[in-house]
Amino acid sequence: MDTTLLRQLNDDVWHPFRLAYGRLDASAFLDLYSPDLIRAGGPAKQVFGFSEYADQTERWFAELADRGSSVSITFRFVECVAANDIASERGIFQLESTRADGDGRTFYGRFHTYSRRTDGRWRICVDYDTDERSATLEEEFLAAAGVDDVDAFKE
Question: Exposed e or buried b for every residue in 126-144, given b needs 16+ CB within 10 A?
Answer without folding.
Answer: bbbbeeeeeeebeeebeeb
